[in-house]
Amino acid sequence: MPPDALIAAVQQLGPKGLTSVLPAFLAEYITEPEARASNLARVTELVSGWPDDIAAEVLERLVALRAGDGVLQAHPACRELARVWTRDVVLTPEVAGVEHLRAAVDAGPTVVLGNHLSYFDTSATDAALAWAGHADLADRLVAAAGPKVYQDTFRRIAAVCLNTLPVPQSTTLAHTEKIDMRELARQARASLHGARDAAAEGLVMLLYPEGSRTRTGRQGSFLRGVHRYLGVGEGVRVVPCAVDGTQHIMPLDSRHLTPGPFRVAFGPALQVGVDGTTREVLAGAFHGVAALLPPGLQPASDTAPLS
């Protein structure tokens, strides 16, 4: 369904209509019948308790969501919805090295750089952190999101549950859509401005510097242009992050989710200025992420840190 048609359909539902169809819509994305049934009951219980004004706000946010300039903040009710829905998808979540993330955030402007396996990486990371007692950190994450995130129905719902910053899709990757260079430059400037504002507000950018989900399963080179996001504040700390499990939960070629285990690990931060220039720290973060990954997801021996 085209985005405009989707918006029109959701608007016609109204707040009560939204809460009546949302549980079944979300549950249908889960492949396993028992998990799907559990999820339907779990989400129905949550959204049926939404007051009319909250349901109206969620509907308005879903309809109005646009890739514009600056950070798009998650609605608190949507954030809770995502963490409740994810209970039947992310099994045996594991969080390691969170002390590195907390120390960096406490010290000043922070950017998290991670490998990218699935469209579900950010949602799984958010939920795992929150369930492990670090909801305050999860709430501060702002995920860089390409244009497709705001167009697909399911991902659009996921986007209103997270803080996101629209970023242009890299045109250097063979499978990405080509756009006018002037428009690309405008989008890049807007996203950098939004990242600076986010850093000034104490938010933490979560970037996937490979530029796209891996096509091989292994970590790929980081895009050189990402170094600009490491200069959004004074002495930015860059925390490596590695995820594992989402490639099985929501594989590259799937629109559905199969419940499974998930692990997210954070490594010691690098600091711009102390550990090198933004480009040097970006290359260092490439190695930092690789060190956190299991062998099967680590980059091939001939993979350059930057491309």
Describe the protein:
By secondary structure, this protein is α/β, with parallel strands linked by helices. It is 45% helix and 14% strand. Strand 3 (141-145), helix 8 and strand 4 form a beta-alpha-beta unit. Helix 1 packs across helix 2 and helix 1 (3-27) crosses helix 3. 43% of the residues are buried. The mean pLDDT is 91.
List keywords for this structure.
307 residues, alpha/beta, 45% helix, 14% strand, single chain
The amount of helix comes to: 40-55%
Q: How many helices does DSSP assign?
A: 11
Would you list the SSEs in sequence order as H and E?
A: HHHHEHEHHEHEHEEHEEH
Alpha-beta content class: alpha/beta
What is the fold's blueprint, element by element?
Blueprint: H1 3-27, H2 33-47, H3 52-64, H4 76-85, E1 90-96, H5 98-107, E2 110-114, H6 121-131, H7 135-140, E3 141-145, H8 153-160, E4 163-166, H9 181-200, E5 204-207, E6 237-244, H10 246-249, E7 260-266, E8 270-271, H11 278-292
Parallel strand pairs: 1-7, 2-5, 2-6, 3-4, 3-5
Antiparallel strand pairs: 6-7, 6-8
Helix pairs in contact: 1-2, 1-3
